[in-house]
Every structure is written in C-alpha cells, then in structure tokens.
Design a protein that fits this description.
By secondary structure, the protein is mostly helical. It has one domain: DNA polymerase, domain 1 (Orthogonal Bundle), CATH 1.10.150. Helices cover 56% and strands 3% of the residues. A two-stranded antiparallel ribbon has the order 1-2. Helix 2 (41-53) packs antiparallel against helix 3, helix 3 (59-76) crosses helix 5 and helix 4 (82-94) runs antiparallel to helix 5 (99-116).
C-alpha cells in the first residue's frame, strides 16, 4: 500500500471497508506502558487510507498530514503520546515559526490522534493559533495593471 499513491485498494478478502480498517487499526503497535503508539510506515499507510476514504480528504491534504507526521517522527522518534506532542509543538512555538506552519502541524496531529487513534484526550485542549489576514493596503497603479494585463494576454 503506497502512502502517497492516488489509488490504494484494501487487502483482498477484507470487505467491507470498515473490516479491513479495523484489521489494520488492531495492529497499531503500543509501547509497553500502553500509553503511546508507535508510528510505522504501515500505520502511515493505513492513516492515509483512513483520511482518503473515511474523512474524504483530498490527496493534497493527505500528503500534508503524512509529511507532518514524518517530520514528527524524524524529530521526536517513532512513538507518539500527549507529552511528546506538546513538547514538539512547544518547540515550534519557541522558534517563532509562521502560524500557518504551526497550524498545519497541529491539524495533522489532531486528525491522527483524535480521529484515527481515537485518543482525543491527547489533543482535546490544543487550540489553533490566530492567523491575521494580510490586508491589501495599496492598489496597483494604472501602469502596473497595464503591465499585468500585457503579461497575461501573451
């Protein structure tokens, strides 16, 4: 099963869709304490399928979620729990990253934990940052508009 592929079929013999999803989710590895999950390639594959089928997310959205989770894996290791999530997000808040980037990370983590792992309590209190819209303060001059129109007409 390819994470970023456009067309992924469930394993043969596990119909309907909820049966194969349950089979995959039943194999998500727990750490010995039972409080953290191990994120493997097969977990990412099944999460991608879950996003596409159950949540009806676009391929671009699924790719963004998978990329965010892979980044989490690189930086925090392959286990995920509430404390590690907050530690990871706190690191980015301290780096003063663009609020849109932080929002993207948070969205992927929330969907993964709340919807896929059914661990909503891990991310329940996490809020999205406020994003200020950039207002247009100056309109283009007539000369600039003419240049734009000339460029688009050729």
């Amino acid at each position: 099963m390819a994470v970023l592929g456009l067309c992924v079929a469930p394993p043969i013999g596990l119909e309907p869709m909820t049966d194969w999803l349950t089979a995959i989710k039943g194999s998500i590895p727990l750490d010995p304490s039972g409080r953290a999950f191990t994120i493997t390639d097969s977990v990412l594959d099944s999460f991608a399928m879950f996003c596409r089928v159950d949540l009806q997310r676009s391929n671009k959205t699924v790719k963004m979620h998978i990329n965010a989770l892979r980044r989490y894996n690189r930086e925090m290791g392959n286990t995920i729990d509430a404390a590690k999530i907050r530690s990871w997000l706190f690191k980015y808040r301290n780096k003063n990253v663009n609020p849109r980037t932080y929002r993207w990370f948070l969205c992927a983590i929330k969907v993964f934990c709340r919807d896929y792992l059914k661990k909503g309590e891990w991310v329940q209190t996490l809020k999205f940052p406020r994003i200020d819209l950039k207002l247009i303060t100056q309109l283009p001059s007539k000369e600039e508009l003419k240049q734009i129109l000339q460029c688009t007409s050729t």
